[in-house]
Amino acid sequence: MAFSHPWLLWLLPLALLPLVFQRAHSKNYSWLDMLPADPLSDLVGLILKALAVLTLFFIVLGLSAPHTNQQEVERIGVGAQIALVLDRSASMDDPFSGTGSVAETKSAAAARLITQFVKSRKNDMLGMITFSNSAMYVLPLTENKDTMVAAVRATAGNALFQTNIGSGLTSGAGLFEKVPDSGSRAVILLSDGAGRIGSDAQQKIRDWYYRMHISLYWIVLRQPGGLSIFDKTYKPDPDKALPAEIELYEFFKTMKTPFNAYEAEDPKTLQLAIDDINRKEKKPIKYLEKIPGKDLSNLCFILAACMIALLLGVKYIEVKTWH
Q1: Cys-Cys link to 131, which of 67, 105, 168, 314 (CB 3.0-4.6 A)?
Q2: Residue 115: enclosing H or E segment and its boundaries?
Q3: How far is the CA of 161 from the CAs of 130, 169, 294, in angstroms?
Q4: How far is CA 122 from each of CA 80, 116, 257, rounded to the nearest angstrom?
Q5: Which domain, by its residues, includes 305?
Q6: Is 281 in the same domain as 181?
Q7: Residue 202, number of CB atoms within 10 A of its CB
Q8: CA–CA gap between residue 97 and residue 264 (Å, rounded)
Q9: Are 57 and 140 found together in one domain?
């Protein structure tokens, strides 16, 4: 058992006050030696004092907020440890490629479909990083699906006109740093463009993902008229640098851990990409289920109320002293 306010337990000696103070009578008598002994009255008086002591004891105990400790039980289920790395650059608020201006925006469609994805995952640990000009830590890996859904919905808002994917990927890997490996780990990167990653950052990403056994899934939300990373007819200009998305795709293919890429041009193809990831990331894993402690404050107050009710009942039936 633990206490939220343990310092209040110092007040417990006050529960002994009914044993110290005697009841004040309405009448005083000069001599009672001739009266016979009354064991029943003495017993009732002792019981009333005990009830008063217990009343104060449970009130102080309830104020200290007692509760049982949280427990962790190891379970075996099907799922993964998944970090969502979501692009929050300003272009995510544009409609999908090939759709009209009244169509669903990329950020809204992503939030809606990821919410469905999170709700469908029963045994996963999920965390989230967003990024635009830099990464923003949103949520650590957690089994609480309600918290994750709230975090996904909270990602909507003002964004900046930059896409720092390198910062998002390193921060996403950082979510796994102090979490025991369950046996299946993945980062889902969702962006509508690409940014260039320096050689030092590339090496860090490559090493971290290999050391922590993290698979990478990249879902590209295509820009209107944008280049496809799967376009086999594309021929790079030898006098120019590779387009950012092609350069990033080529880098991802050099990683030592599993990598899969998807392109989405509308909510339907985005749904297909998420469904495919959902099927692939269903492996046997070990995870710890946290069983929260039980609050015992109300039980203490109920017991104290019962004691008070008994004292009031005895007071009500007490024989009044004659005038």
Answers
A1: 168
A2: helix 106-120
A3: 14, 18, 48
A4: 10, 12, 25
A5: 2-23+38-69+292-317
A6: yes
A7: 18
A8: 9
A9: no
According to DSSP, the β-strands at 215-221 and 259-264 are parallel
Give pLDDT, residue 101. 46
* 114 half-sphere exposure, CB direction, 13 A CA radius: 28
Query: What backbone torsions phi and psi does residue 4 show, to the nearest 5 degrees?
Result: -75, -30
Which whole-number Å values give the CA distances from 45 to 49, 268, 277, 311, in the listed order? 6, 79, 73, 11
75-92 tens-digit pLDDT: 776 778 899 999 887 777
In DSSP terms, 287 is beta-bridged to 75
Residues 47 and 120 in one domain: no
Confidence at residue 268, expressed as pLDDT on a 0 to 100 scale: 87
Task: Please report whether residue 124 resides in a domain.
Answer: yes
Domains held by the chain: number = 2
Q: What is the pLDDT of residues 266-309, one digit of tens each?
A: 888 889 999 999 888 877 776 667 788 889 999 999 999 999 99
CB 8 within 8 A of CB 63: yes
- Look up tokens 């950052």; give the residue: 201
Confirm whether 126 is domain-assigned. yes
Residue 262 lies in a domain: yes
Q: Are 64 and 106 in contact (CB under 8 A)?
A: no
* Six token digits for residue 161: 């006109």
Task: Give the CA distances from residue 202 to residues 34, 199, 219, in Å, rounded to whole numbers and listed in that order.
Answer: 101, 5, 19
Specify whether the CB–CB gap between 148 and 141 falls below 8 A: no
Instruction: Report the chain's terminal Cα–Cα distance, integer Å.
Output: 52
Which parts of the chain sit beneath pLDDT 70?
22-32, 34-35, 77, 93, 96-103, 156-162, 194, 223-225, 286-288, 319-323
Q: How many residues does the chain have?
A: 323
What DSSP letter does each residue of 238-295 carry, written as one string? TTSPPPHHHHHHHHHHT-SS-EEEEEESSHHHHHHHHHHHHHHT-EEEEEEEEEPPPB
